[in-house]
Amino acid sequence: MLTRLALGLLWLLHLLPRTLRGRVGEGIGLMLMALGAERRNVVRTNLGLCFPQLDKDGRSRLTRRHFMATGRALADTTVAWWSSADRIRRLAQVEGLEYFMRTVDAGPTIILAPHFVGVDILAIRLSLERDAISMYSHQKNAVFDRFLVSRRTRFRPIRLISRQDGIKPVIRGLREGLPFFFLPDMDFGARDAIFVPFFGVAAATVDALPRLAAITGAAVLPATIRQGRRPADACVVRIHPVWQNYPTGDPIADTRRMNAFIEEHSRDCPEQYYWLHKRFKTRPAGEERFY
Prior knowledge:
By secondary structure, this protein is α/β, with parallel strands linked by helices. It has one domain (2-272): Glycerol-3-phosphate (1)-acyltransferase (3-Layer(aba) Sandwich). Helices cover 49% and strands 15% of the residues. The protein contains eleven helices and nine strands. The strands form two sheets. It has a seven-stranded mixed beta sheet with strand order 1-9-8-2-5-3-4, with helices on both faces. The protein has a two-stranded antiparallel ribbon with strand order 6-7. Helix 8 (142-152) links the parallel strand 3 (133-136) and strand 4. Helix 3 (37-50) crosses helix 4 (56-82) and helix 4 (56-82) runs parallel beside helix 7. The longest helix is centred in the first third of the chain and has 27 residues, at 56-82. The model has no long low-confidence stretch (mean pLDDT 95).
């Protein structure tokens, strides 16, 4: 019942005009920051590790901006969940859409989509253009799990593959010509992960990107999403150039390249990367835990 009530309240947000919706979203973010001591501490720990040059006040300001950006992204995501395709296109403008279409049409494509706060908007926006496959983690709440699946597949028959199903269904989909939306920049534990730097800190990172590219011959096409400065601004999905000479056959170097790309674009808008996640939860043997 509480989940359905929360979804009903979120549904109301998509009815609001863009500026008001953004302001309300920022307020929700600040409320979550005030009430969520554990997640607030996760964000501050991550920022302290990744931006050691910031003093305490600087980290506090960036923490506040991050929660505001996260709340605004949630409010805008309600448009992607419930509004028409035309309204979603107005919400998220795509730079390089023709390049995206040509790349996908040319052969197997892995769309590298890092966890910026609007990544759900990015995925639903690009799903308007092409069928695709993606991996997802089952939500503990069954009502919310069914809701997310229904939202992510409402325009096209997106093939959602549970992480528990492994990588073989992804390989089959790529070989069938379906682009694969891949979000590999989270700490999924030590299994199938290697430690490579992220902001100079060893981070457990799955090396599936270069392995999949090698097995399927897929092009790696990065895509990022950026909020505008003001709540009245549209989001911008940017399609980046396909990576050349990738993979190299060195999984450590190839995974480092992925983290370096994500780090570069996180530095441009540090409040918009998803710092709520315990990115450095898994530590190399003998290292102390951060959280």
